[in-house]
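Our collaborator T.R. sent over the components below with a one-line note: 'Predict the complex.' Nothing else. No constraints on interfaces, no templates requested, no preferences about which chain binds where. So this is a plain run: every listed entity goes in together, and whatever single assembly comes back becomes the starting point for the next discussion.
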Amino acid sequence: MAGKSTLRDRRRLQTSREIQRAALTLSLRHGHDLVTTEMIAAEAGISQRTFFNYYLNRDTAIVGQAPCFDEETVAWFRASSGPLLADLLQALRQLLNNSDLDRGTSQLIDRLLGTAPELLPIFYGSLRRLRDQIADLAVTRVGEDARSDAELLAEAISHALGDTFRIWANDDAMSADSIVDVAAAKLQVLRGYLAQV
Amino acid sequence: MAGKSTLRDRRRLQTSREIQRAALTLSLRHGHDLVTTEMIAAEAGISQRTFFNYYLNRDTAIVGQAPCFDEETVAWFRASSGPLLADLLQALRQLLNNSDLDRGTSQLIDRLLGTAPELLPIFYGSLRRLRDQIADLAVTRVGEDARSDAELLAEAISHALGDTFRIWANDDAMSADSIVDVAAAKLQVLRGYLAQV
DNA sequence: GCAAATATTGCACAGTATGCATCCTTGTGC
DNA sequence: GCACAAGGATGCATACTGTGCAATATTTGC
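Returned assembly:
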């Protein structure tokens, strides 16, 4: 379905993962600030120049490429008329179903974030494309005039999702399907806090 | 009260503002990606090396230094026992009262963000210290076990505050005192969205 | 197989950011 | 006032980041 099957595309995906893995293991071994793009390239078996063909900068290599709604899901959302948050969460469920998450890599990311908190903005920043997409979807419901409100909602959703992602990485008993449910529960906790005025 | 009155400290504050102003005007004139730290230093009348004594990197010079709770406010919060969100908002009111905001600079920031959306993460990132402080305050109420929930709340609050800050910059009729109130209203809109399940 | 499309690489180069030594300015104690 | 300590400003050297360009290699479609 989402499978691009040409040799070129398979290689591209594999190389990007090898780079990420190299960046993660080196950062865990030496500390993120002591790892250079040259070291990462060498570990991944490519040239430094090629590294920059795959990732815009050294930091984003660690968190990999952000997931993204496919057209099908966007179309479903536009056609649906359920409650806003419920539909957004459902779209996210479809997104996570289509993307095959690698728990091993996620664990490495989580462990690195524990030792290098300065990377937290980069981790949450990696969800930016997704966040923007969520905001765009929400805007189709609440109207362009309320875009900044839609962005605030999208920020909260993607943040909760990021947190849950880290929980999932470290809990082998937790299925990928429940990620969105746990994130939704976190959002309801937030709603409770916001009611305490 | 917050006044450090030695010549050294007054100079330091003034220089940091001159650097920020130089960074803003140059970025608005030439486009942010065409402005170098050397240009900023020259415009501010200092050396490039001195630029890096004031700001950690080129981007943060644009948004200036983040505000920060003073000890007094923190002590007040710890002693208070009102509803969580209400107390957090009250602490923010005190924070904004103590810090003298410069609407002119804020306007330049807002205009630049309009032309260079890639700076938005840096703008919201500048609130990070404040966000962490808010989370710490919230943790004293909800407990360490719920830290990630407190951080989600802090993220929402600081995001809403950032949005409101930009509104205030462009609305001369809006008083600084009402910033927190408008942000609180945004948070209630968010609460409404979160209830739509 | 061949030609077009696409990837990889080396190289040059501008810019970022830091450490260090030195010089200059400001605060302090007398 | 003056001398000395503390803290800032600067120049210089240097490691690293990230990009453009041209050359080379690989994949794809036919």
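Summary for T.R.: The radius of gyration of chain A is 18 Å.
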